[in-house]
# Entry
Amino acid sequence: MRLAQFGNLELLARQVVEGFITGLHKSPFHGFSVEFAEHRLYNPGESTRNIDWRLYGRSEKLFTKKYEEETNLRCQIVIDDSSSMYFPQTGISKYEYAVYAAASLIELLKRQRDAVGLSIFDSALRLHTAAKSSMLHHRYLYSELEQRLVNYKEDNKRETSTIQALHDIAELTHKRSMVIVFSDLLDDPTQTPALFDALQHLKHNKHEVLLFHVYHKGLEQSFALEDRPYQLIDMETGERMHLRPGDVREKYQQAIQAHFDELQLRCLNNGIDFMPAPIEESYEQVLLKYLLKRQKLY
# Structure
């Protein structure tokens, strides 16, 4: 679905979420916002799920962790607005894909009366709103997203500084929030350790982190271009390169796959939810796949 079909981002989001409702049997975010309260002695016959095994190792006694649930979720949606996100320039771009998915999440959270905030960054953090649950606030978020649905302009290049933006968001966002990031993750691969330091900053501040990796599978992963001369242009720096895809395709595929695999493995090791989001697959299906997976876990 494209915005042009409806002329209104909120209406588009409403249509998508109506489709979700039939597939979701309960809130996919139920039980997320919990805070440790105290220990109590384990009673035989209870579930062993919340036993504190570290404490058992020190005391040789079984204690369970007692939690207090908070009434509402706080969610911060983060979108990469750098120039590379405006690829490709025909069909839906990665940025449009992220905006439509984000709008659908805002609608879903609105229906659950949860608080949602929005952060948008390129080389710096350009927008950051606190998470709120009012109807006026939701309308403001839709308006901000709609204003940014513009075509790529070569004379208005915007580079990426994901690392600094995530550090800033970690400090500005209310603790114990769910932070959902949409990005193509096309930063310098040598900066991957620093990227995960920034993501760990979010985890350190008690946030749950979900990373949607938005990319074009055919062109950015498989490099599926005709074997003829091309001039490739970096959308963020303007750097130009002349090549024939067949000369570099195999090495490119190996390098990009190794980068993608490293991102996914590091997310797994750091307790970060990682969701591939190839734009050839509809954002509705990617979101529903994640929400159904989350329901099963919680």
